């Protein structure tokens, strides 16, 4: 992410970059962009926040590690005692509901106390967290049992509101994606929208088959830096461009049982043969539905680009191909 994107994000939050960084606990430095003067966060409180975590690598001055805005999913954070002086919890205790700030933390200390290894290829030893506190549930003098019940109700209420919003805006997300990408889609009776770029051969997969395919799954919204918002891919180049590349993943065509894939993907793959290429836009009812799963929120439309490499019949080792 370029520095300009961070500035634009700060502006969108109503922040001001005029303040100088101040010295906090340990190695932490911070800049408070906005303070509403509400009670500060304390140990035991429960907060809802949005944030962006970046590090400086040898190839990118603002490499994004986490961005709740791209994920369209705020974080819910239980405030515990600080693990070390200058950790994120100590920074959050400088803020109250509605406040915004950026914290610069020492990655060596984070690795030592959290057990999470540092990213590779770092140019500096600092991680930056740009945080907006959305809501705070203060523990006060509540006994643990009572506060746990309050936390559960708080989370359920916020999560329900998020889901209702996603449900309402889903059709608009799909329409916006189609319009912005100038797609001439065909809409199936199920609601699946698709574009076939290559039909492939005459062979069609059935539910008992295993399909060999290259694919990329993404959300309809782009990331704040303008790149595709990819959540899974079999393509190494796409993974690197999307910032999700992992050395532990083999980026090769994947063999997947057709019958175990989301309904929209099943329908789309059955429209092409081996060698075929298709873009599918799935409404959530054909994807992960009202429950979501992993990085996918409830009521989230998805886009899949698939190239079918082979169809493996039951008890047959070799894929059928042209």
Automatic annotation (TrEMBL):
Keyword Isomerase: yes
Entry-linked InterPro entries: PPIase_dom_sf, PPIase_FKBP_dom
Pfam families attached to this UniProt entry: FKBP_C (PF00254)
GO molecular function: peptidyl-prolyl cis-trans isomerase activity
Domain PPIase FKBP-type: 208-312
Keywords per UniProt: Isomerase, Rotamase
Keyword Isomerase in annotation: yes
Protein name: peptidylprolyl isomerase
Reactions the enzyme catalyzes: [protein]-peptidylproline (omega=180) = [protein]-peptidylproline (omega=0)
């Amino acid at each position: 992410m370029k520095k300009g994107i961070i500035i634009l994000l700060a502006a969108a939050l109503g922040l001001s970059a005029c303040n100088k960084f101040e010295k906090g606990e340990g190695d932490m430095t911070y800049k408070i962009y906005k303070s509403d003067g509400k009670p500060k966060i304390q140990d035991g409180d429960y907060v809802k926040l949005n944030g962006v975590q970046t590090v400086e690598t040898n190839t990118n001055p603002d490499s994004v590690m986490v961005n709740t805005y791209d994920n369209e999913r705020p974080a819910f954070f239980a405030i515990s005692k600080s693990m070390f002086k200058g950790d994120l919890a100590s920074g959050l205790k400088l803020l109250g509901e509605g406040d915004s700030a950026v914290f610069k933390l020492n990655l060596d200390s984070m690795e030592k106390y959290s057990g999470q290894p540092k990213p590779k290829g770092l140019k500096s030893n600092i991680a930056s967290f740009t945080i907006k506190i959305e809501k705070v549930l203060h523990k006060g003098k509540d006994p643990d049992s009572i506060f746990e019940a309050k936390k559960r109700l708080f989370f359920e209420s916020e999560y329900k509101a998020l889901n209702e919003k996603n449900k309402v805006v889903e059709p608009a997300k799909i329409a916006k994606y189609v319009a912005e990408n100038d797609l001439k889609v065909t809409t199936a009776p199920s609601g699946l929208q698709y574009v076939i770029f290559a039909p492939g051969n005459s062979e069609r997969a059935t539910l008992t088959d295993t399909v060999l395919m290259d694919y990329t799954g993404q959300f309809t919204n782009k990331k704040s830096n303008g790149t595709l918002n990819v959540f899974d891919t079999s393509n190494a180049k796409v993974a690197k461009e999307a910032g999700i590349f992992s050395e532990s993943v083999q980026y090769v065509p994947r063999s997947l049982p057709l019958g175990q894939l989301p309904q929209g993907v099943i329908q789309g793959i059955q429209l092409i043969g081996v060698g075929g290429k298709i873009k599918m836009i799935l409404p959530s009812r054909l994807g992960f539905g009202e429950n979501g799963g992993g990085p996918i929120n409830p009521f989230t439309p998805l886009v899949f680009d698939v190239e079918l490499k082979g169809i493996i019949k039951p008890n047959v080792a070799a894929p059928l191909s042209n």
